[in-house]
Design goal:
By secondary structure, the chain is an alpha/beta fold. The chain has 2 domains: 154 residues, Orthogonal Bundle (serine acetyltransferase, domain 1); 101 residues, 3 Solenoid (UDP N-Acetylglucosamine Acyltransferase, domain 1). 46% of the residues lie in helices and 11% in strands. Strands 3-6-9-12-14-15 form a 6-stranded mixed beta sheet. A 5-stranded parallel beta sheet has the order 1-4-7-10-13. A 4-stranded parallel beta sheet has the order 2-5-8-11, with no helix packed on it. Helix 2 runs antiparallel to helix 3 and helix 4 packs antiparallel against helix 6. The termini are far apart. 34% of the residues are buried. The C terminus is likely disordered.
């Protein structure tokens, strides 16, 4: 009798869920589709293989040199590429809603992955510059290897740089899957759309948020709890946010932003500026500005001195 009662309750819940699913908007219920969605474990596995290629000898096989290095890079890239082609194809087929056939999605997926692979040498140089920035910017870091192995900021920015390339190639779903996985591990939330220059360093990292349309120059350093966010965004006639509007800060070269600072809106933080801890900033500042918490609201003054 108890099992029969459970079966009736379960059937009732399923019936109610079906009724709800039939009535809610399409955005909350996946419509019937013959194509599977991208698989998160496969996407993350491919990203880890790409990280192993960008930092050879640190992840996966550690005894590399000469032809061994060449074979390792080739075999690892081949595995990553095969996985990514399938996952990109799934994302394309799901998003296109039948406007492309499966063969067209497959061809596009191969082209996208080929373009990503062509960018890997440039990504390797960027990743190496991020590690160097960490080593130069943190006196507690004894070797660059420690940054590669241990620092959440390096993991988060490497993941974002890979995701950003896929974002620029207009791949659905995968870029955000990659950055949200890094977010879940590190507490650092960087949208794949953010544009970030070389030698970028996030120290400590937890609670850092970098919005979709942020533009960050070269040699920028952020500390924990920093937000580069939107102050507001325009709405359409239905009261919904308009997508794709530039709404996040531009941070020019050689800027340091200390812990807890919140910088909102499409404003510019001029080259060489220092933004102090817990500052709330919603207006642009000129190059070489020194913005400290007590002065953040009433005035902004220029200074070559550090905080």
């Amino acid at each position: 009798m108890a099992e029969n009662g459970y079966a009736r309750r379960l059937s009732s819940v399923v019936d109610e869920l079906c009724r709800v699913n039939a009535s809610v908007a399409r955005s909350t219920t996946r419509q019937p589709c013959t194509q599977p969605l991208p698989a998160r474990p496969a996407v993350i596995e491919a990203v880890e293989q790409l990280r192993a290629v960008l930092f050879p000898g640190y992840f996966g096989e550690s005894e590399l040199g000469g032809e061994t290095m060449r074979f390792y890079l080739g075999s690892t890239l081949d595995r990553a590429a095969r996985t990514l082609v399938e996952q990109v194809r799934r994302g394309l087929c799901f998003r296109c809603e039948g406007t492309l056939n499966e063969h067209e999605c497959e061809a596009r997926a191969h082209g996208i992955v080929d373009a990503l692979l062509a960018r890997l040498p440039a990504l390797e140089r960027l990743a190496a510059s991020d590690v160097q920035a960490a080593y130069e910017g943190d006196p507690a870091l004894h070797t660059p290897d420690e940054a590669i192995f241990c620092y959440p900021g390096v993991l988060a920015i490497t993941s974002q740089r890979i995701a950003h390339e896929l974002f620029k190639l207009e791949v659905p779903l995968l870029p955000r899957m990659i950055t949200e996985h890094a977010h879940s591990i590190t507490g650092i939330d960087i949208h794949p759309g953010a544009e970030i220059g070389e030698k970028f360093f996030i120290d400590h990292g937890t609670g850092v948020v970098i919005g979709e349309t942020s533009v960050i120059g070269n040699r920028v350093r952020l500390y924990q709890g920093v937000t580069l966010g939107a102050k507001s965004f325009p709405l359409d006639e239905h009261g919904k946010p308009i997508k794709g509007i530039a709404r996040h800060p531009i941070v020019e070269d050689d800027v340091i932003v200390y812990s807890g600072a919140t910088i909102l809106g499409r404003i510019t933080i001029g080259r060489g500026s220092i933004v102090g801890g817990n500052v709330w900033l919603t207006r642009s500042v000129p190059p070489e500005s020194h913005v400290a918490q007590p002065q953040a609201r009433p005035e902004i003054y220029n200074s070559g001195a550090g905080i």
